[in-house]
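Sequence in, structure out. Go.
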Amino acid sequence: MWMGLPALGLVRFLPARATETERSEGSYRLFGPKDGLAESVVWSLLEDRDGGLWIGGRGLSCYRNGRFEVFRGVGRTLSEGLVFSIYEDHGGRLWIGRSSGLFRIEHGAVAAAYNKSNGLAGDDVRFITEDHSGALWIGTAGGMSRFQNGVFTNYTTSNGLPQNFVDAIYIDDDGTVWAGTYGGGLARLQNGHFTCFNVSNGLAENVVSRILEDSRGNLWLSGNRGIQQV
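Output:
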């Protein structure tokens, strides 16, 4: 198991099947810049289909075959800012969400960059996921965007989103989009219309930072005050 820490780096916890030699060094190991990590600040993690672990913070690193590689970018470069989200789409393309925009990486280079100036709802990208049609959904501090075939469709408070700061997105099996906001609670987008859930109609709090669904179809939300089931 891997855990990112906002100031100390990356932690790897040893599995139960670890050898005695591995366990002699302790039950976990902490990695930082001295080990090749780009920075000691870690905000996001993703294991890609080839087994590489991508680590985002103030920089972007990949841990593969026992060593770290720092991604510098080729051609277009990643702008400054924290990496809050990393996502691999169905085609194996890597998407990076930073506080300065959305970036697509292909063949070891930044192939495209998006921000508010070219259609994204906001520059500060907090979450990236994909629906069943292959469209990307991006949560930003300025609203939520759907991106497909080079076109952005944006959702903000002007068309029903309860709060523009979207920290989490979950898409269920029937295509319903659930958006967790910072301060506005939970929003359900279904058939083009939003339904909002907040403390006034049953939520424990209005901060929703992650959304997961269990095998029974229940949604689990995390926020500043803990975890709740919907």
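Check: The mean pLDDT is 91. The longest strand covers residues 42-47.
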